[in-house]
């Protein structure tokens, strides 16, 4: 293979730290492999190198490439004998091998391994409950003050805050030192003074943004001023002058908070600047209100108050730290007792090993020739600390700051950036930039550069794109004929306003899916792509196509629509492990076994698990027969189970479980579960399910997991499964290899990293970002420490919260920009964006003196369309609208469709034999007026199902009923829907409740989930005083309460009267 000069430098440079900044498609993996082979050819042995990656798949691929290269060189035969001893692995695997090797120095068993996640979570839960219980018993003055301060927010706040702080502390390289130095690190007066100066600079930056906006307004309206506009400009000019003269920050604050922003002057309709002036007026007003609000909400009008407010939070923060320290200490004791550890524990043990044993540390420092790290931009602080312990001017790091997209996994892109600057400016290392892209066509490279040249800099984005970060076309094979298509970024454009006027029930998602399906079908019939290996064009296949989306919310809707129109789909979306049909059956069957020997368990669980097992794909007994049995027979004692033998359809189940009970206590758990599989012929029954091979893999995985539960008996396993069922967010960790099939791939942008596709579609670009202002009572941050509120006649924030929120917003926007870079650079030949012209904004292109879009514009990005509006892509890209000609009979039923579980509602009580549902009974005779009311009510419910509360303006445009519009606005502005807290919103949320006596079915109109609260909202057309509604909501309340520790409240909402009534 021919290498570029930069690649050759990365392969051959020796005797110094090296950071390779490798752009997308630059061949970094090949360079790393070739560097390894060069070392081997020079006489270095493979086990004298350490090669670290971030995924097992990447480690496996790297080892495979190196092994193949060694096998192809007879002079390197001896290295094959050493390769299995070489470290070519993930950080986690390397640390685990270190800890196992030196377990005796750490007083750990040699068998130490990674424990099951659910068992660890259960242990954490029990440990924290014990810590809190002990503190309530001891009731120290500091604890009483802490609990009293937070009393109104409940124990859940204390519990959740300790868990969050514990996770934060566990990310520190030395947790104990961090805790011990916390007060000095964050609450010394000179430290708080530094934070205050940072805040002061932040406020001045906001004020300067206000001034820039005002200057832009003056420029835009130049030549169109009226007397009223001149007066308006004069007022704002005076505001700016008065604030600009105040060097004393206290005076600046006092003038600011007393400013009244002028009203917008009346501008005639025929004035061409009317709309632009209106936009600038709103922007200026919002900017000023933003600054004023900071001081008003923090109740601070001077430096002294600002600083003192932070110091007032010290006792609260230190008590939380103390409780968390107790929890972590006890948790380590319990983990040691039970030999249950996660990868974070293993990492901590590895660091301790190296810190306390200089001979081991020195072995790696002086015997390892080089430590190679792939994807260095994804390292976290612990990993960097670990590397520094064993490195000796011999780090070879490969990565791309522009592809750092794993902040939610604690990756710190600053690690990469710090090295980049340090090595660029000093002799501590060498930076090598790999910019040539060997993946994409020239036109795609050009358009990608167009998107990021003015939008990604170090301040927002993470690195200066104009500073050796733009891509250079490198794949000359694409210089072949381009006669078959337009390449680069292409736009499928539509206008949502126009589309909705034609069909009010349409929304952006529906429109985009229709356009997507039409375009795919047209391209499959008519388009060709270049096969690089054969250098010839071939027809486009479904598997050449990837649909990339920011989030998974529309996956099923897209998948169903495409499938319904003859487009095969490969959905890259993980299903929770225990909700799949085969696992639901297995867990129910195991619980049914317990019912045969545990009478208390039988009383609580028999009906539910018996129903689940009998109607499953394994036994396939008809619902009517099961229901008839459950109604007729009362099973409350173990002896009652013998009645099963009287029923032909249930005899086999009785005999099977009776046999299994005979052997249960003579077999280890793993052997017993294997016997269960074989006795019920479980693998054979999988033929009745879709994708039986995938189901088989999951059953095998579950069996392997059980093998690791060495101390478990059968009751422990059932308790384990019950624990998972009782927690919404618990599940067995499992990942399945993706299948290589001829189907369109649908995946998130995150999932696409490391992959490449001939054709990439980008959808949902108008969707609002999911950024949430962190409203937690306690916030943990490396730079700012623990941020909390002042508790004084209620509570209010300190200036630290605003500093943190600005930092968090900047990091979020930066990662969104980098994520979009990842998405665009997946494409080899075509990028097709489906865009709504209504979402294009013309005011996003203003450049600052450095040649980048003004930071205040970028900080306001709230969608990818906002980002794209800052580029010239809409002016320069090829645009078209595909003809939509799809199967109308099929397509209409799959938009917003839900998977309806085929289950019947019934009452288990013999008297009366009725079906049961959570809904009000209506015994009235249906006259014409009632029928009309119900018809209108159905229409209202249908509309409310479609409403996107986070994009309410778009939804309101499709509603013609003004009463409904006003009612929706009222609901959104009520306390129930505080969208600034970014709650999760579930509409028409369907559930089945298996209680002791009944199997009930319910549909909750609106379920709103906050961090510490669920709101259940039931829509009523008008009257909300009927007592029957309370019974209905009580059923909803009971079900949700049984599934969560959060507080649950229930409300009725009268759509016509705009009245909210709390019922529970």
Characterise the protein shown here:
With 1064 residues, the protein is α/β, with parallel strands linked by helices. It has five domains: 5-114 and 341-434, 3-Layer(aba) Sandwich (Rossmann fold); 137-338, no CATH class; 477-573 and 741-772 and 803-880, 3-Layer(aba) Sandwich (Rossmann fold); 578-734, PCRA, domain 4 (Orthogonal Bundle); 918-1062, Alpha-Beta Complex (Lambda Exonuclease, Chain A). It has 41 helices and 27 strands. Strands 13-14-12-15-20-9-21 form a seven-stranded parallel β-sheet. β7, α21 (442-452) and β8 (472-473) form a beta-alpha-beta unit. α11 (189-221) packs across α33.
Summarize the helices and strands and which ones pair or pack.
Layout: H1 5-12, E1 18-22, H2 28-41, E2 49-53, H3 56-71, H4 77-82, E3 87-90, H5 91-101, H6 117-138, H7 141-149, H8 155-169, H9 175-180, H10 182-186, H11 189-221, H12 227-244, H13 249-257, H14 274-297, H15 303-312, H16 314-338, H17 343-356, H18 358-367, E4 370-373, H19 381-390, E5 395-399, H20 414-425, E6 430-434, E7 436-437, H21 442-452, E8 472-473, E9 488-494, H22 496-502, H23 508-526, E10 528-531, E11 536-539, E12 545-549, H24 555-564, E13 569-571, H25 581-595, H26 599-614, H27 623-632, H28 648-664, H29 669-679, H30 682-685, H31 692-707, H32 714-726, E14 744-748, E15 757-762, E16 779-781, E17 785-787, E18 790-791, E19 795-796, H33 799-824, E20 827-836, H34 855-858, H35 864-869, H36 873-876, E21 878-880, H37 888-891, E22 906-907, H38 928-946, H39 952-957, H40 962-972, E23 984-994, E24 998-1009, E25 1013-1020, H41 1027-1043, E26 1047-1054, E27 1059-1062
Parallel strand pairs: 1-5, 1-6, 2-3, 2-4, 4-5, 7-8, 9-20, 9-21, 12-14, 12-15, 13-14, 15-20, 25-26
Antiparallel strand pairs: 10-11, 16-17, 18-19, 22-24, 23-24, 24-25, 26-27
Helix pairs in contact: 1-2, 2-3, 5-17, 6-16, 7-16, 8-16, 11-14, 11-15, 11-33, 17-18, 17-19, 25-26, 25-32, 28-29, 29-31
């Amino acid at each position: 293979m021919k290498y570029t000069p930069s690649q050759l430098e990365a392969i051959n440079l020796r005797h110094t730290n090296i950071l390779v900044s490798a752009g997308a498609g630059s061949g970094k993996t090949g360079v790393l492999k070739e560097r390894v082979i060069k070392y081997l050819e020079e006489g270095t042995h493979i086990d004298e190198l350490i090669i670290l990656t971030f995924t097992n798949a990447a480690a496996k691929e790297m080892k495979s490439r190196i092994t193949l290269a060694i096998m192809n060189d007879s002079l390197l035969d001896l290295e094959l004998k050493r390769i299995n001893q070489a470290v070519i692995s993930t950080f986690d695997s390397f640390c685990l091998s270190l800890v196992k090797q030196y377990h005796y120095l750490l007083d750990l068993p040699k068998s130490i391994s990674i424990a099951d996640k659910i068992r660890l979570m259960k242990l954490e839960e029990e440990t924290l409950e014990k810590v809190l219980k002990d503190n309530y018993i001891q009731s120290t003055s500091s604890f009483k003050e802490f609990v009293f301060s937070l009393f109104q927010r409940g124990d859940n706040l204390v519990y959740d805050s300790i868990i969050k702080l514990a996770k934060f502390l566990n990310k520190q390289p030395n947790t104990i030192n961090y805790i011990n130095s916390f007060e000095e690190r964050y609450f010394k007066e000179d430290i708080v003074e530094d934070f205050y100066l940072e805040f002061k600079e932040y406020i001045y930056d906001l004020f300067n943004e206000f001034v820039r906006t005002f200057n832009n307004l003056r420029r835009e309206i130049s030549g169109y001023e009226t007397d009223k506009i001149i007066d308006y400009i004069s007022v704002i000019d005076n505001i700016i002058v008065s604030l600009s003269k105040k060097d004393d920050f206290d005076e600046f604050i006092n003038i600011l908070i007393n400013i009244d922003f002028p009203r917008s002057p009346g501008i005639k309709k025929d004035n061409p600047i009317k709309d632009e002036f209106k936009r600038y007026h709103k922007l200026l007003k919002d900017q000023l209100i933003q600054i004023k609000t900071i001081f008003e909400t923090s109740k601070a009008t001077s430096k002294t108050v600002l600083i003192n407010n932070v110091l007032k939070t010290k006792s609260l923060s230190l008590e939380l730290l103390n409780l968390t320290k107790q929890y972590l200490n006890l948790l380590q004791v319990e983990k040691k007792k039970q030999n249950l550890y996660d990868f974070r524990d293993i990492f901590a043990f590895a660091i301790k090993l190296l810190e306390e044993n200089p001979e081991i540390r020195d072995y790696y420092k002086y015997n390892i020739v080089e430590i190679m790290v792939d994807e260095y931009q994804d390292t976290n602080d612990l990993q960097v600390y670990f590397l520094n312990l064993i490195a000796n001017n011999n780090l070879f790091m490969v990565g791309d700051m522009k592809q750092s997209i794993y902040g939610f996994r604690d990756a710190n892109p600053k690690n990469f950036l710090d090295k980049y600057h340090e090595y660029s400016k000093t002799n501590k290392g060498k930076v090598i930039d790999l910019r040539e892209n060997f993946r994409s066509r020239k036109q795609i490279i050009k358009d990608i550069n167009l998107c990021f040249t003015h939008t990604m800099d170090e301040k927002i984005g993470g690195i200066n794109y104009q500073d050796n970060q733009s891509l250079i076309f490198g794949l000359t094979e694409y210089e072949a004929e381009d006669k078959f298509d337009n390449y680069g970024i292409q736009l499928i454009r539509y206008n949502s306003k126009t589309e909705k006027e034609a069909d009010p029930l349409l929304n952006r998602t529906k429109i985009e899916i229709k356009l997507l399906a039409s375009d795919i079908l047209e391209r499959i019939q008519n388009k060709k792509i270049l096969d690089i290996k054969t250098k010839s064009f071939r027809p486009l296949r479904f598997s050449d196509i990837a649909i990339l989306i920011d989030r998974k919310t529309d996956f099923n809707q897209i998948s169903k629509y495409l499938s319904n129109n003859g487009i095969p789909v490969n959905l890259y979306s993980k299903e929770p492990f225990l909700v799949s049909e085969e696992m639901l059956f297995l867990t129910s069957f195991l619980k049914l076994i317990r019912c045969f020997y545990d009478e208390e368990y039988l009383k609580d669980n028999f009906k539910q698990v018996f129903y689940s097992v009998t109607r499953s794909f394994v036994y396939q007994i008809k619902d009517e027969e099961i229901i008839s049995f459950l109604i007729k027979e009362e099973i409350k004692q173990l002896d009652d189970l013998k009645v099963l033998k009287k029923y032909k359809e249930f005899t086999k189940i009785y005999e099977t479980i009776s046999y299994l009970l005979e052997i249960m206590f003579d077999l280890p758990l793993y052997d017993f579960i294997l016997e269960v599989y074989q006795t019920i012929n479980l693998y054979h029954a999988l033929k009745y399910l879709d994708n039986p091979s995938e189901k088989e893999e999951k059953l095998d995985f579950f069996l392997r997991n059980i093998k690791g539960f060495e101390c478990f008996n059968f009751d422990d396993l059932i308790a384990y499964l019950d624990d998972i069922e009782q927690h919404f967010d618990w599940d067995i960790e499992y990942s399945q290899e993706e299948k290589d099939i001829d189907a369109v791939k649908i995946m998130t942008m995150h999932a696409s990293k490391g992959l490449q596709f001939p054709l990439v579609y980008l959808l949902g670009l108008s969707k609002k970002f999911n950024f949430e202002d962190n409203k937690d009572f306690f916030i943990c941050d490396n730079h700012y420490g623990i941020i909390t509120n002042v508790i004084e006649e209620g509570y209010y924030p300190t200036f630290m919260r605003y500093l943190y929120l600005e930092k968090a917003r900047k990091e979020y926007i930066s990662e969104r920009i980098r994520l979009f870079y990842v998405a665009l650079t997946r494409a080899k030949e075509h990028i097709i964006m489906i865009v709504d012209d209504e979402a294009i904004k013309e005011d996003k292109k203003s450049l600052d003196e450095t040649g980048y879009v003004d930071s205040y514009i970028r900080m306001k990005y709230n969608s990818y369309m906002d980002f794209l509006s800052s580029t010239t892509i809409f002016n320069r890209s090829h645009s078209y609208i595909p003809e939509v000609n799809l199967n109308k009979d099929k397509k209409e039923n799959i938009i917003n469709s839900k998977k309806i579980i085929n289950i019947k509602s019934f009452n288990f009580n013999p008297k009366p034999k009725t079906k049961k549902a959570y809904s009000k009974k209506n015994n009235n005779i249906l006259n014409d007026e009632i029928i009309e009311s119900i018809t209108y009510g159905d229409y209202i419910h249908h509309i409310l199902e479609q409403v996107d509360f986070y994009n309410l303006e778009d939804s309101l445009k499709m509603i013609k009923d003004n009463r409904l519009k006003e009612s929706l606005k009222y609901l959104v502005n009520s306390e129930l829907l505080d969208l600034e807290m970014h709650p999760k919103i579930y509409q028409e949320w369907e559930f089945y409740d298996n209680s002791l006596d009944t199997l009930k079915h319910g549909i909750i109109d609106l379920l709103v989930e906050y961090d510490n609260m669920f709101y259940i909202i039931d829509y009523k057309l008008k009257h909300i005083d009927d007592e029957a509604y309370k019974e209905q909501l009580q059923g909803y309340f009971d079900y949700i309460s049984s599934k969560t520790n959060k507080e649950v409240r229930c409300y009725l909402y009268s759509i016509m009267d705009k009245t909210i009534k709390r019922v529970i």
